[in-house]
Amino acid sequence: MANLQNSSLVLMSDMPPGTEPAWIHKHVIYGEAEEIEMARDGFYVHLPTPADAQDFARRYDGSSHGGKSHVYKKHISVKVIPMTEAPEAADVQLRLTDFLRTEAAMPHTKTVHISGLPENNAKRAVMAMCDEVFDCWNISDDPALGAVTKDLNPGYPHIEMDNSTYYPEALVRFTSKEAAAAVVSQHNGGYWNNSTTYAEFVDDAELDTIIQAKKESGGKTAKLFIGAVKPNASKETIRALFAPHQPTDIIMQPGKRFALVFMHQDAAAKFLSDFPPHKGKWHDGWNYRVKRAEDKSSARKKSTPALPDSSFQTTPASGPLSNDGKDVAYGAFKNSTSGSDTGYVGPLSNNTYSASPSWASPDVRTSAVNGVLVPQVSTSEVRISNLAPHANEEHVRKFFAACNVSTHNIVLSKDDHEALVSIGKDDVEAALLMTNKKFLRRFVTVVKA
């Protein structure tokens, strides 16, 4: 007991998963400790005096920590221990003082390096982290910050993802140093998706170099598709498959047996020339067949036949006559040379006619506006619910666009916190996969067909 009365060392255990000294310092004990050492059995907190240690243990033992960025809350254990039980230097994994030293030495720039991101949907996590910061800014109190908010929210700054490491990292370019400082203040030593996050200023030249290299190489990225992935394969397995080439991003949805891989064009072309899709590449006891993923918009363009020549003209639905003097069926589409009916023309507003000519595929329709045919895509509706109270149509549109899903119409119901979104029929499956149970303005979405 005497040793405890003279001890200023406290052991914290049963902390939420993924916590590290930086987060404990900034968001749990608010700078009370002189040092926090992270070891396998917990966090060793060094307080200024034994009295401080006793008071610290009394206040924090059994307290609950957790919130919207935690999967669940934890009741932590805090107790004073003898100074002799402090961990050996070799057993310490992280120290608070190292974090504070690095933080103090950071430059003040417009570019921020963010780490501690989730393995899946890392870029979306970066966007949500930025939203969390700028949604809290009071525009009326600070006009300068209001201008920055307008630039960044609901749009996003330049984000360069690095997926070469086990956990993704990001370089983010903001429109001002003030905006960058706001993100660093909240997320350097923050907590997101069960992980301590670090947001550190870096020299602007670091991102400028990457952007310039992309411009010189054309800035194009190839998207590759692997249709049959080995069961239980990880992103590391897929990354090793492409060695020595380095994918810029890998998307693998839980429970799905396919993967999307993004690489620079030159690297993708070299890989496919060495391992064409019909042969594949053996790796980890599995033959992976890799091919280029066809862009949805390109696929639609290829499946849409050429438009008719200038001999076609729209026929008003006012009872025109065919060559034999008989009335053309209501809403017909007439060939001015042969007089034949080649499709449907119906009365729409602004002299627009909906046509389904014989050369169009069943899922493709066209409209004729002032005599010009424009392809249209058959659509379906999905319902997205559990929206944030302040979410608007633009937020929903950008959310779907970030998932590579084009929206044709959005009907928002703020009272019910949901929206009906009209998308292409071919995009429904991808939309349900990519948008359900994801963060939109800090709320987890529910998307159903």
TrEMBL record:
Residues 293-326 are annotated as: Disordered. It comes from the Eukaryota. Residues 9-79, 223-291, 381-447 form the RRM domain. GO terms for molecular function: RNA binding. Residues 310-321 have a biased composition (Polar residues). This is RRM domain-containing protein.
